[in-house]
Amino acid sequence: MDTIDRPHYLTHEVTNQPPPLAEYNAAASDAALLEGLEREAAGWDGDGLLALGARAGSAEAIGWGFDANRHAPELRTHDRYGHRIDEVAFHPAWHRLMETAVAHGLHGAPWREPRAGAHAARMARFYVWSQVESGHGCPISMTYAAVPVLRRRPDLAALFEPALTSSIYEPHLRPLREKRGALCGMAMTEKQGGSDVRANTTRAEAFDGDTYALTGHKWFCSAPMSDAFLVLAQAAEGLTCFFLPRILPDETRNAFHIQRLKDKLGNRSNASSEIELDAALALRVGDEGRGVATIIEMVTHTRLDCVGGSAALMRQAFVQAAHHARHRRAFGALLADQPLMENVLADLALESEAATTLLMRLAGAVDRSADDPREAAFARIAIALGKYWVCKRAPAHVAEAMECLGGNGYVEESILPRLYREAPVNAIWEGSGNVNALDLLRALAKTPASFDALFAELDAVRGDDARFDAALAETRDGFAGGAAAEPRNARRAVEALALLLQASLLLRYAPPFVAEAFAASRLGNDGGATFGTLPASADVRAIVTRAWPG
Questions:
Q1: pTM of the full predicted structure?
Q2: I need a labelling partner for 72 at 20 to 30 A (CA). Which of 167, 486, 502, 511 fits?
Q3: Domain range for residue 350?
């Protein structure tokens, strides 16, 4: 057969497409993160963070993130012989992600090796590794947050903390005392109450000393494959916190039955479930009737990780958008060189830097809380502020970054659809917007030390920027007059405080061109309602170059 000469326009030549973003260091180009690491007394971990950043930017790790989400976990309630096993099966990529996270101490390093800046160092690593894949951060975060709660029972901490803070990832269920590495989950919410955990109906009946038998249905149990769980249940004196192991010391399975896995919008690599407890044995942690007060420390730490997870999503979304814009040409020029796109990228970078800077300040406050009452008071309020605001900003930020790629960003081969599906979850978990805002206003009213610590932080930069001063005076007047403390105004008040806190940190620590643009667009009248509306005074090129050198 004669060879057919095909017209030159029938071609599979690919042009004007950016190269894959891989084999880069996810930490090395993040100036706000590295500066925060030094500022929060964690500079000693610089080499370790950069090593993890190189791993996070590797093609292999990026592939794990895709595979773990493409192959969702599967519930196996029974074995082939009909025995109840209640196990969750994961793709090998999930285990590689978990193995790396545990080896780098994301779940327990500050408790295992306490030192100055330990929580800040751990948070920097959590933020970098979460850019690879977010779902596996759930069991990592809960294990990290469970340790201080468990320490309320020194006898239990002595038994179980070594496994919960070990750098060994051991996914197979065995009695906790025999495990070299273990994970801890949480089961608080029930179908009739949701965030109103005091409406819980799960019963806890005294069994033997501080051991109770728990019976009830939990509507949302995160990471059901964990080795143990912190659980809330109603004891004789009221809502109480319990530590519930999956495997009992005699190697039998506890009466912890997984009813189904949730079919979630995002976070699909991570198993979330409904469970039934049928006289499951658990150990009391804290006094009867003090369940919320006992477990709240866990919630505080998981809320901090919600800030870290959302900041990581925003950072990765910006990186993807900037990388694309620096390689894609349209209308005769690179996208990154076109004024309006440059404005959008700068605005995304600005939001990301504000989130990262706040995140590192919060982690530093946790480090200093044990020895500094003012830092402890600041952390109680500022973590809630960060949780509310940064988690609220993530969905819109990721959506704008996706738009920078156009149709290329909307397809699943791009990481952006996964980031977008993931973006709402941190605002929903650990207290949705209304719950978080109202909790924060109550805390400000009940703990004057927290109110004073927050405003002392803001007052430290008063006089540096007229727009900041005006916004601070207006917010202070709102609290003095009582309007800001009214429940219907809770979101407005919390938003104002969060923006002021971010602005104060940027005025203090960021280059002037960053702080100026943030104050003008977020506190002044020179910004619009969407990203890409920075005023003409903003040095957009400098902002983008700082965020993503190239």
A1: 0.96
A2: 167
A3: 293-547
